[in-house]
Specification:
CATH class of the largest domain: Mainly Alpha
Helix content: over 70%
CATH superfamily of the largest domain: Tetratricopeptide repeat domain
Structural class: alpha+beta
Number of helices: 25
Shape: globular
CATH topology of the largest domain: Serine Threonine Protein Phosphatase 5, Tetratricopeptide repeat
Number of strands: 9
Distance between the termini: 60 Å
Oligomer: single chain
Radius of gyration: 29 Å
Length: 637
């Protein structure tokens, strides 16, 4: 029973972002009464009332009705913000009804509306909803892709509420794919934020899904404790939707222990709640559970009846044609967005060219002015002396300029090497994409978009490092050191690289001590650890492990990032942290590296009064060691 039932329990464990913040039958009833008594004459009030009705209504059919009214009314009033809001709520409602094909189209339209308005938080909400949708179809790769995009946006916007919600959903996705430690870690981080925000609903959801994770770990005691606590809190809040799912978890616990009476009771509770709210996914899972339990108790007639119901619900939720159409919609949306990013890159490149030409003109004018002054004042001894001093200063500047030119040449080499490959790949992908579309070859588009996304990520990572290097060289990089929890910034860094590691099935184990506090600048240290862990992923073999540790040692914080990858040859170790010589290295899957990230890491660690070292053996792996001060008064060493 364990093996059979676990599959659909995980299908039922998903709790979406929108539900955590929206469902409230009492508020919905009050708003409905107001709406049917008198529609507000003010346009803004009318739109807001329709939005609240779609937002708070727990019944998907009612939410769909009001979201359609909101979209149509907003279009009549030419109000793009409420068009976006209506599309978002419509996508949620369609997903809950099991209409995934239409939900995908609506949510991609929603993201496009947010892009048009340059509404970053709106884009993050649309990406979260798409992650929810792909989770519902068990497309785990795309689900985590959109969740991680949303996490990055909400972090940038300092939006704690939405960040907690999408972290919770990402944890639910890890629960789907049986990465239980990662799932519990995401749920714990999400729960901490919910407690900080005093959000009892979010806390209850975290209890429930942690209970499901413990159930998968065969820890029945903790599973039962967390599930019962979740149900108790949610009943007080009047949020019945997740209670249906958690009853299924309790049904499995009691079924495994042979207590079929209690198992059937909780399974029927789940079935009845799902039926009341029109939740097809939960009805499918509850039907299958009841079929198995009745089979185990010898009531084969009821087992057969519920098995027929399960098959009916399952077939109505997902079929192959819908999944293919959803993939096509996602591809069209991604291609449009990538073209926008390419156009933006071209504009930035043109701006850099204009700036370089302007600097050249300024240098020429400065030289001409100095020559004129020298000619007009060469007969005056005092001025001659001043000119000699100026000439000496110019010699120094000339030497500095020569060094800068060497650095510039090195950067041109980096750009030509690191951008040429991805940009050529993008050109090749566009040609292949046109051919696939012309030939109707849908099956290979998913793999092609994965490779396209990797090429874009390489370009994005390089540009981030180039910007940080340029700001640091000009002395303009924002540096505000203070007390920061090392585990917190390491959690954020590891989370941002989860998708990249997942592509190679690499596990990143974070064992930084939770109470370790350092004195450093948060932004520069996140750049350091992002580059070091990124390198570890790049040069590690598929299906390997990267271990990150952090503890106190000799009155300093000692951080180690260890991989078992290709290692670094002895001849390249000497200048590993400097932009000199040829340090070009290929990753385990042909990823290119030229050393810019390590140079940034070295500069930023020194800027934070720390030390960075490396230990490596070819084909045995590499360990980067970073020592950082624990308080403001500590110096290097």
């Amino acid at each position: 029973m364990r093996i059979l039932i676990v599959g659909f329990i995980l299908t039922a464990c998903f709790l979406s972002f929108s539900l955590i913040r929206a469902q409230d039958q009492r508020i919905a009833d009050s708003l409905t009464t107001i709406y049917y008594r008198q529609i507000p004459s003010d346009d803004s009030a009318h739109l807001m009332l329709l939005y609240d009705l779609a937002y708070y209504h727990p019944n998907p059919d009612s939410a769909l009705k009001f979201s359609n009214q909101l979209i149509n009314t907003a279009r009549d009033k030419s109000n793009p913000l409420f068009i976006y809001r209506g599309l978002l709520q419509k996508g949620h409602a369609l997903r809950l009804k099991g209409d995934f094909e239409n939900a995908a189209q609506v949510l991609f339209d929603c993201a496009s509306e947010a892009y048009k308005m340059d509404y970053h938080r709106g884009v993050g909400c649309a990406f979260t909803a798409l992650g929810d949708l792909y989770m519902s179809t068990e497309d785990h790769k795309n689900s985590l892709l959109y969740y991680n995009r949303a996490i990055a946006i909400f972090k940038d916007q300092n939006d704690s509420t939405r960040l907690a919600n999408v972290l919770f959903n990402a944890g639910s996705e890890y629960l789907f794919i049986n990465q239980l430690d990662s799932a519990l870690n995401y749920f714990n981080i999400s729960e901490r934020i919910y407690r900080y925000l005093n959000n009892p609903t979010g806390i209850a959801y975290c209890y429930g899904n942690k209970g499901l994770a413990y159930l998968r770990q065969d820890n029945s005691r903790l599973a039962e404790k967390n599930l019962l606590k979740a149900i108790e809190l949610l009943k007080e809040l009047g949020d019945m939707y997740p209670i249906a799912k958690y009853h299924l978890g309790l049904s499995e616990i009691y079924g495994d222990n042979g207590d079929y009476r209690r198992a059937l009771s909780h399974a029927h509770e789940s079935y009845d709640l799902a039926d009341s709210y029109g939740l097809l996914q939960n009805l499918s899972s509850a039907s299958r559970m009841l079929s198995e339990l009745y089979s185990l108790t010898g009531d084969y007639k009821k087992a057969f009846e519920y098995q027929i119901e399960y098959i009916s619900y399952r077939d109505s939720i997902i079929n192959e044609e819908k999944i293919i159409q959803m993939a096509n919609m996602r591809t069209e949306f991604e291609v449009a967005q990538k073209q926008t990013e390419v156009d933006l890159f071209k504009k930035k490149k043109q701006t850099q060219t204009i700036i370089s030409m302007g600097l050249g003109v300024i240098i020429l004018l400065t030289g001409a002015l100095i020559c004129v002054l020298y000619a007009n004042n060469k007969r005056k001894i005092q001025i001659n002396k001043q000119l000699e001093e100026q000439k000496e200063e110019l010699r120094t500047q000339r030497d500095q300029l020569a060094d800068l030119n060497q650095t510039k040449d090195r950067f041109f080499s980096i750009i030509s090497h690191d951008l040429r490959g991805p940009m050529n790949s993008l050109h090749g992908f566009s040609v292949i994409l046109k051919e696939y579309i012309a030939e109707g070859n849908v099956a290979d588009l998913g793999e092609l978009t994965d490779e396209l996304n990797q090429a874009i990520n390489k370009v994005s990572s390089l540009l981030d490092n180039l910007l940080s290097w340029a700001l640091n060289q000009q002395g303009r990089f924002p540096f505000s050191p203070g007390k920061i929890r090392l585990a917190e910034i390491m959690d954020e860094t590891v989370m941002s690289l989860t998708t990249m590691a997942l592509a190679k099935n690499i596990s990143i184990v974070n064992e930084v001590e939770d109470d370790l506090v350092i004195w450093a600048d948060k932004n520069s240290m996140m750049t350091v650890f992002r580059n070091l862990i990124n390198n570890a992923v790049k040069f590690s073999q598929r299906d390997s492990t990267i271990k990150v540790t952090g503890n106190k040692a000799n009155a300093r914080a000692l951080v180690k990032i260890k991989d078992n990858g290709v290692g670094i040859p002895r001849e390249k170790m000497k200048d590993i942290f400097r932009l000199k010589g040829d340090k070009s290295t290929w990753g385990t899957e042909s990823e290119k590296g030229v050393g810019l990230g390590l140079s940034l890491a070295y500069d930023f660690v020194r800027m934070n009064k720390g030390e960075i070292m490396v230990e490596s053996k070819v084909n045995k792996g590499t360990t980067f060691i970073v020592k950082l001060p624990l308080n403001k008064d500590q110096d290097n060493g």
